[in-house]
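Provenance

Sequences were taken from public entries as deposited. Structures were produced by running a predictor on each sequence independently, with no templates supplied. The record for ADP-L-glycero-D-manno-heptose-6-epimerase from Hymenobacter rigui is shown for reference.
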Amino acid sequence: MIVVTGAAGFIASCLVTRLNAANFNDIVVVDNFTAERKLANLKGKHLREYVDREEFFEWLEQHHEQVEFVFHLGARTDTTEQNRDVLNTLNLEYSQKMWQACVQYQLPLVYASSAATYGSGSLGYSDDDALLPLLKPLNPYGDSKNDFDNWAIQQPEKPFFWAGLKFFNVYGPNEYHKGRMASVILHAFRQIQETGSMTLFRSHNPDFADGEQQRDFVYVKDVVEVCMFLMQMRQHSGIYNLGTGEARTFLDLTLSTFAALGQTADIRFRDTPEDIRDTYQYFTEADMSKLRAIGYDRPFTKLEDGVTDYVRNYLVTGQYY
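Predicted structure for ADP-L-glycero-D-manno-heptose-6-epimerase:
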């Protein structure tokens, strides 16, 4: 059996699809299944069992001998969350308990970290362990992820294989439930369909023109390929960036969305909301050399190609992955 936490969410549900495609059908999905808006992400998938996240460790105690691998992708992912107690409970303490269980039962573990740990990027975007204690995230969400990364590398006892993945700006199908936290592509698609135009955040940094803010946008199908690679390799434990290694602008992203829809671009700007303005990242770009060095050699999907696939094959048709 393969365990996937956060399984009804965006990235994890895409991973379940990819596992099914590789004939892994004994998948135990773990989540808070009361959020009905996410359940469509699991419809039609081959699954072994649903386990509520609050009951998981009791379940694992009974079934650990049958578990082959753990993907811990569940978390509180709202980057505007200010309740540190919630973030500590779900992102730090739950992950610590997962780590300790994987040590106890000798289970390989891949868990979700985040590029939010890099903060303003003043120290760059290297996934070198030596930089972890020096990073200063810009929000409590980033703090919670960085706290766990630092805790993990300091542990004297570790799973026999483990990897933390610092996800950059992931986009793609199955993020329909994410609301404000969904990718700009989903917001652009909806706005273009409704109004024929798209409104982006204005830059409040003199070094960046409006729409020229840059992020490392990575297609979710590439993300799950990396997860599959790590599951099959099970060596070279550590924390790895997961982006494309190439920053692109929000204008690039939005223009690609208009092009995928076959519509003339009409892009407007509004002020960045005050609740995120001071913690806004203007540039992110993953240093991918560490993952490449352990043998991951697949090319990452070009932004224009990923947006076209997402828009035409999922957003226009209403399909899930």
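The longest strand covers residues 109-114.
The longest helix spans residues 84-105.
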